[in-house]
Amino acid sequence: MIEAHSDVVGSLLRPQELLDAQEQLAAGRLPIAEFKRIEDEAVDGALRLQEEAGLDVVTDGEMRRLSFQSQMTSAVEGFGEWDLDAFMWGEWHHDDLGEMNVERPPIAVVDTLSRKHFLSGEEFTYARNRTDRIIKVTLPSPSLFANFWDEERSARAYPSAQDFLGDVARILRSEVDELVRLGATYIQIDAPQYPLLVDPTYRDFYASRGWPAERWLELGVELDNIVIGNHPGVTFSFHLCRGNQASRWLVEGGYDWLAERLFPRVKADRLMLEYDDERSGTFEPLRAVPDDKMVVLGLVTTKTPRHETVDELAARIKEAARYLELERLALSTQCGFATSIVGNSISLDDEKGKLKTISETAARVWG
Questions:
Q1: Mean pLDDT of the region 226-246
Q2: Whose CB has fewer CB within 10 Å in the chain, the N or C terminal residue?
Q3: pTM of the predicted protein model
Q4: 41-62 residue pLDDT tens
């Protein structure tokens, strides 16, 4: 298992040149070869930024994605029409920026899923030749896609949501197998849907699809474990947060309800837990973490420019060590800086500073 004490969740702010190129490509005004050159340069910049910050683990910044989970719908046929709102809908909150309400679009799986190409093969093979750090590849949890199953529009392809999600898990499992074949040693499963269960609104949403919270969690973890499989020498992390779009969040509440139900059952080696403010509750649920897992504390916020200090972070890590021994803890941001191309309301300098503070804190605490 990778035991790095500084980590990063996944996405970084997209450079403006890349955002402009995506618009030009969509409008048919930019050749694909020129677009790929700009995209590659954005990845190069993301890797340099993380290396210069001193991180043990790096990602490609998810520069090739519209959203952290959009590679699934981009690479697989059968999802029908979709756009960025498919991954952003919900009632988003922020005390200063105000509310952001994105209506659920008429998305649906309309045909049996078939993969056009691997989701992340290009991401990994490009990045592995451009850094000597540990490369993490991020993949979405299968049950994140539950909102694509619609009883009227999807039933011809999949009689039930369970049938559909089983197929999603099959595709993601083959993705993991391919990444391992290509040499990947660190893979992350993004599963923000589980902390949503602390909110009655989201529990009602899943219940309306025939899956009460306990049953939904049981099915979801079963699918996640299918995706993870058995790959000696490969570390898997499991990221749990409460929503992250345009510096806003979806729900609040501690991990207490989830801890006993989820932490011991998922086969991941590292639990990446959001802990950047009071919305996340106390560290007490860390008592439920089994002996074979590490916890990566997401103490550094990506939602605001507030610059955490090494002293502040070291003190919070010491507090968490009351519940889980220090050597089984690590440090990261609470989520990505740009869960989608919209990005959070911070600057590139803020991003650089926060990543550097993570590596400096890890050096002080763990040496």
A1: 95
A2: C
A3: 0.96
A4: 999 999 999 999 999 999 999 9
Q: What sections of the chain are H helices per DSSP?
A: 16-26, 32-53, 70-75, 121-128, 151-154, 161-182, 200-207, 213-228, 256-262, 310-320, 348-366
Please give the Cα distance from 117 to 120 (Å, whole number): 9
Residues sharing a CB contact under 8 Å with residue 252, sequence separation 6 or more, in sequence order = 198, 199, 242, 279, 280
Distance CA 127, CA 122 (A): 8
Q: Was domain 16-366 assigned CATH 3.30.460.80? A: no
Helix count and strand count (H, E) for the chain: 11, 11
- Are 59 and 8 within 8 A, CB to CB? yes
HSE of 278 in the Cβ direction (CA atoms, 13 Å)? 0
| The pLDDT of residue 178 is above 90 | yes
Amino acid identity, position 354: K
CB contact at 8 A, 237 and 296: yes
What is the spatial distance between Cα 77 and Cα 88, in angstroms, rounded to a whole number?
A: 21
